[in-house]
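Protein modeling request. Please complete all fields; requests missing the sequence field cannot be processed.
Requester role: graduate student
Desired output: 3D structure, token encoding
Chains: 1
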Amino acid sequence: MSPAARLAVADPRDRLIVALDLPSLRAAEDVVSKLGDTVSFYKIGYELGFAGGLGFARELIGEGKKVFIDFKLHDIGNTVARGVASVAGMGASFLTVHAYPQTMRAAMEGKGASPLRILAVTVLTSYDEADLAEAGYAAGVDETVRRRVEQARETGIDGIVCAPTDAAMVRGVLGPKRAIVTPGVRPAGSAAGDQKRIATPAAAIRAGADHLVVGRPIIASPDPAAAARAVQAEIAAALAAA
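Delivered output (242 residues):
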């Protein structure tokens, strides 16, 4: 199945993941309340996770929502495997790990037979060539992402997290069946913030992304539900045109 055909059968509502990058449970609960049935999938990262967000994740799952735990695990294999097993027991849908071979293998072992999908993070969307060079990487962004995706594919990983600007290349390496999740998605006219490699929702879908992570353009909007619906409409239009 080609990427276009695969995307054409996707439900646009399930393709949007709203990032609850918020400092408190009260703030997260307020956003979720305002979004109501408009959004079915949420991401919880460090900021909210360390403020009680894991308990909130369980509540969302209990209410029928999907949850993406974005903790980007990376440690010795045994620690990663045990941590992943704990997340699998929560009923989360997605969990991120860094795309290092040992870490990815341990994560795939840790999830066992659960439906949890392990996503490998390649190069953060806030990094560019200069950032990689500063960190001591001789290879640039494209080469580093490609190599990590090849290694992820070899481990049997469930999906990849990458910048939307990398999605077309990643899809070519990863193949049509595994998930591509892209943060760094900004509707036209939105501020880039600290992101450096960004794209609009439609461009990300056309490039081969399955799920789009959108935070500030929705959670900081005066009307989060309207902002979410606008992104979903753009996803739907891109899917229809694929």
